[in-house]
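Quick start: what a row looks like.
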Amino acid sequence: MKFLRIIVLAALLGLSACADGQSTLATTQERIIPVNTAPVSTSTIYSQLSYAGQVHAAEHIAVMSRVPGMVDQVMVDVGDFVSEGDILFTMDPVDLQNNINSLTAQLATAEAAVNSARTGVTQAGGSAVQQQILQATGGVAQAETAMAQAETQVEQASLGLSQAQNAHDTARQSYMDTSALFVAGVATRMQMDQSEMALSNAQIALEQAQNNYNIANVGLSQAQTSHRQAVQSHQLVVGEMPEENRQRAQDALAQATAQRNSLQVNLNAAREQLNNASIRSPISGVIGSRNIEPQTMLGQGTPPFTVVSADTVTVNVEVTEAIINRIYAGQKVSVRIGAASAELFVGEVTLVSPAANQMTSTFTIEVSVDNHAGTIRPGMFAEVFFTRDRAENAVVVPRSAVLIENGEPVVYVADGDRAIRRPVVIGIDTGAEIEIISGLSLGEPLIIRGQTSVTDGVAILIVESGGDI
């Protein structure tokens, strides 16, 4: 085909470059324009608007500790992959273990009180009074020791509660101040998040301190009850223990048993808290940040770890009112992330802001993109494409085939060996293709090359025809 074009063009040039003796013939000979044509057909055409955004992790979780105090061990670092349930770090278990030891001792004392009360019931008939008195005296002594320990724990827990309350009040005031600054546009989102995180941590610490204080008070109450029971048991065995004293012994046994059971519940809770000293990852993902070191106190403002799940990422873009009504949740869109792949990704609209940002007059759109291949990383630049106009089964021609003459769009079609000028009405224009609303019929031979050289009715030579436009 190229060889045929060369021959035809050479022939035309030869005709236009005649010898001097044939100059009169060349002047009067009609000029013939070589052109290429293609039949007019239909297809789908659409125009797009693109908006830039940045890739974010779809799931970004701050991992906190329910147990305050000193960090013991750190198992992972930034960039490490972790599975759900993996231990990220542990808290110093000394204080927690001491609490368990104290409750264990109290439980042993309560168990002794139960045994003592049981013995009191057995010996309520008056035999071996002296032995009963000795046992009852020992029970009182043990109960007094347990009560002294419980009072010490209440004092320590009260001090911890006061400190936690002060820290919470400070964090709450800071949060309220930062919120006001954020609303006024002075504080940043990061500062707002940090203030909110600090308040959350302070709330956790206050709740833990309140819980410790409540546990300590329960322990004291139980120790006081145990002491009263021991005293009552001692008083019972001193006298002749009539029938009413036998009933009291039964009551003392029931109370001692209840106290022992309550201490067992508290001990189980303390052991659960010790288990919480091993902080585990709530999701599978990659460690995004680490803000702790071993043998340092756990900070109140910054989460020790953040875990990023990047199996799915999101891209937030700000769009104008020109396109917002054409976007809906669940809509599939094309996303270009050049740093991840030369190919376009398929995204899905997951959020459409119901109102415009008052400062920018734009609407926030969130697009979710699958990233199981792991090629997309948070922070990458992305470009999201939204369809603005679309037409099915439309007459579509190359943009270059449409000319503007005297302010009017026109095309040229081949009618035998002549070029015919056709005014047209155009529609969607993508820059590469353009929709022809009226002025062309299907199958007509549209001039797609050489159209800039022809005029209405000029002679043409079709060098190549056929094929898709």
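That is the whole record. The chain is about 40% helix and 30% strand. Helices lie at 2-16, 23-28, 94-122, 129-183, 189-238, 243-275, 321-324.
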